[in-house]
Design a protein that fits this description.
four-stranded antiparallel beta sheet, single chain, globular, about 220 residues, mainly beta
Length: about 220
């Protein structure tokens, strides 16, 4: 959707570019800057520990570029801070906080570790599954046209442990043309969920957590 529009984000702003114009809208929260490798006086990288890769994630709806979701790491200097997911349906002018119940979905883990985000359009106007790559795999919730959630429970893990391992889902990508959701993991390979909109809709609308992922 909107092939001429580019949507991006940094730790403080959502940025949209279209028809030669650039618009930056403040994010509802700030995200940490990752610790990166430093350089010596000769311009060579000094090898050493780094925190991780990106400290925030962005998901944009393939059906509506005005609809986007952001989340990530608030701090890298300590294992603390609120991990939040926020949704906009108007290109960053307003934001809805979808965080309630997020930590319950990853219990007994104490951190969500938001590492990937995707928006999967469902079968009614404005309806989306908000999908999060977390410390326990892929979790999801439901939105309607104005960003309010209808799912019960509010966040649900997608698939059983036999369908998707209990591991950090470090990246997500949704292809609307094939209705396929792909998830990368930390050391356990890449996993694919076919018929993603149908399966996610069934899980979130009907509470049918037994619907299995296709891998």
């Amino acid at each position: 959707h909107d092939e001429a529009k580019i949507v991006a984000a940094n730790g403080t702003h959502l940025v949209t570019a279209s028809a030669g114009s650039l618009v930056a809208s403040p994010l509802p929260t700030r995200y940490a800057r990752p610790v990166t490798l430093t350089y010596d006086d000769l311009g060579k990288q000094i090898l050493g520990p780094v925190s991780h890769a990106a400290t925030m994630a962005l998901g944009v709806s393939p059906a509506d570029s005005q609809c986007a979701v952001v989340g990530g790491w608030p701090r890298v200097d300590a294992n603390a801070g609120l991990e939040e997911v926020h949704l906009t349906t108007d290109g960053g002018k307003t934001w809805a906080n979808l965080t309630d119940g997020l930590l319950d979905a990853v219990a007994p883990s104490e951190r969500v570790r938001i590492s990937g985000l995707a928006l999967v359009p469902l079968g009614w106007p404005g309806g989306h599954a908000v999908v999060v790559g977390s410390s326990v795999g892929v979790i999801a919730t439901l939105t309607d046209a104005v960003g309010r959630r209808n799912a019960q429970p509010k966040w649900t893990r997608v698939g059983s442990l036999a369908d998707f391992p209990l591991v950090l889902a470090s990246g997500l990508d949704y292809d609307r043309n094939t209705d396929t959701l792909a998830a990368a993991t930390m050391g356990r390979g890449a996993w694919v969920l076919e018929y993603a909109s149908m399966i996610l809709g069934g899980i979130l609308l009907e509470g049918n957590a037994a619907v299995a992922a296709s891998v």
